[in-house]
Amino acid sequence: MSARKKRILFFTPFATRTGSEMMLLYIVKNIDRSRFDVGVASFSKGELLAEFPPDIPIFIVPRVFNYWQKVQFHLGRNPILSALRKLARDFGADLWYVNTTMLPETVTVAKEFSIKLVTHFHELPLTYSYINADDMKNIITYSHTLVGCSQVTSEAIRQTGGENVALLYSFIDPQKLHADPARTAHIRQELNIPPDDFVWVGSGMTSERKGFDLLPDIAEALDDPHVHLVWVGGRIADGLVYHTEQRCARTKSKTRIHLVGKKKEDYAHYLNAGDGFMLTSRQDPFPLVMIEAALLGKPIVSFPSGGVSEFLREGMGLVTDDISVSQMVVAMRQIMTGQVVVDAAKSRERAGEFNVENGCRMWTEMVDKIV
Fold it and tell me: Are the beta carbons of 349 and 310 closer than 8 angstroms?
C-alpha cells in the first residue's frame, strides 16, 4: 500500500519577483507531485501567481481590506486570521511552509490548529525591526524548523534563540538568465557609454538596506569620467530616495550615474552591460543578484553585508573589511586597473553550484526530515 501524500501549504507575502519569492516558485514547480500535494497562499495578488502550475490551488489572504473587511476589523474580527483559520480547516495541511518572517499571523493560527510550521528566513537582523517582539518570539519558539538562506542568516537565528536551524542556500534558474551581446551593446549605446569606459552595475529596490543612498558618495569618490554607475531596480517613493535622486542629478562628479528603473524584461541585458557588479547592501542574507552577476562572469565588489562573504572565492572579486565607501572605491579601482586579477570562468563555475536542480534536491532532503 503506497504512503499517503503529504500536504504542504506555502505562504508568501507579495508574489512578486523578489529573490525569495522566485526561489519559492522554483521549489513549487519542481516538487515531486507523486509525493506531495501543495497549495500556495499569498497575501497579495502579485504577478508571480500566474507562473505557478495551473492545477496548484492559489489562495489569497487579505492584507489590504475591502469595505466589509474593514467593518469586520473594527468590530473585532481580523479578516487575516479568519482567512487563515478557513485555510487551516479546509486545506488540511501536514505542514505550513512560511517563506518569510513577515507573516506572523500564520504562526498564531498554526498554533491554534497544532499545524507543523517551518519559517524560512530570508532576512537578517536589520529587517527584524519590522516584526513585533512577541511575534518574533512566536516564530522562533513555535516553528518546527527555522531555515536560514546562508550561514550568517542561520547564525542570526541561533542568536535569537532558535534551536532547530537548517541551512538552505538560495539558488537561481540559470536558464532564465539570457543576455544577448547585441542587446547589451545597444543598451550601453542608449546610455551614451563609450565602448572603453568601465561600467559598474548595482541592482535592487532603492532602499537604505540595499545602500542605494550611497551611490552619489561612490561616484564622488571615484570622480572618473571613464567610469559609470548604473542602478537597476524598482523605485521606493520615500524621502531618502528623492534626496538620493537629487544628489545623483546635482553631483559634480565626473563619474556618471544612470538610474534606469526596474527593467523587468531587459534585466539580464542591463546586468550584462556592466563590466563589474557592485553590491552596496548594508545587510543582505544571500542576494540572488550576486549569483546572477557571477554567472555572467562579472567581478563583484561588495561590503561585508552577509552571505556574499560565503559566496565569493579568490578570483571572483573583493569584499571590503568594513562598510566603507572609501574601501569600496579602492576595491573597484584595484579591479579596473588589473591590480586584483579576476577570472570570469571561476565566477561562472561557482555560480553554477547554486542552481535549481541542486537547490530543490537539498530542499526535498530537508523537508523529508520534517514531515
Answer: no
